[in-house]
Predict the structure.
Amino acid sequence: MGNVGKNESQLGRRIKDMNKKVLIVIGVIVVIVGAFPFLARLAGDGTPPPPPPTIDLHMAAFTGNAEEIRRHIAHGSNLDERDEKGSTSLDTVAIFGHLESAKALVEAGANLDL
């Protein structure tokens, strides 16, 4: 009977040890998954991406706001989308002579033939 009690005691300790290990693994997984979005933002050259655009691409083109246009580029906006008058953002920056904005659009692949 003494061995049975001893075996139960050893089994109880093993279960507690296993539970601790499982909790540690779960904790590590939670930390990794929670950090993943942050780590993903640091991909590339180590700098986080620019904040999302705050104004419409066509308004940014109209005002020559090159920084806002770069935000649209970084966030995958359709650079060749036409406004209600049929103009693309590249048309607009060209009409108003916004050279820095035009350069950003052309370098990002805006269609020159539209």
In short: The chain has a mean pLDDT of 83.
